[in-house]
Amino acid sequence: MQDSYSALEKNSSEALKANMVKNRDLLEQLEAKEKALALEQARLDANGKG
After folding, report:
1. Angstrom distance (rounded) from CA 19 to CA 27
2. Contacts of 40 by beta carbon, 8 Å cutoff, 6+ apart
3. Summary count for the chain: helices (H), strands (E)
4. Burial letters 10-25, b for 16+ CB under 10 A, else e
5. How far apart are CA 34 and CA 48, in angstroms?
6. DSSP H stretches of helix in the chain
7. Tens-place pLDDT, residues 23-37
8. What is the mean pLDDT of residues 18-47?
9. Distance from CA of residue 36 to its chain's centroid?
10. Distance CA 37, CA 30 (A)
């Protein structure tokens, strides 16, 4: 029974690590998109005032 718990704990730990990596990647993508949107908004604002 202890082996089963150990295996479950190991799988959970690995799943958490994998999710953490995925979340970091998604966060980086989101931040890049936010930067791109901010740059585009600034460009549009500058064009609108010119």
Report:
1. 12
2. none
3. 1, 0
4. eeeeeeeeeeeeeeee
5. 21
6. 2-49
7. 999 999 999 999 999
8. 97
9. 16
10. 10
Q: Which amino acid is at 14?
A: E
> In this structure, which amino acid lies at residue 43?
R
Q: How far apart are CA 20 and CA 27, in angstroms?
A: 10
**What percent of the chain clears pLDDT 90, i.e. is strictly above it?**
72
pTM for the whole structure: 0.70
- In terms of Cα–Cα distance, which of 38, 40, 42, 19 is closest to 30? 38
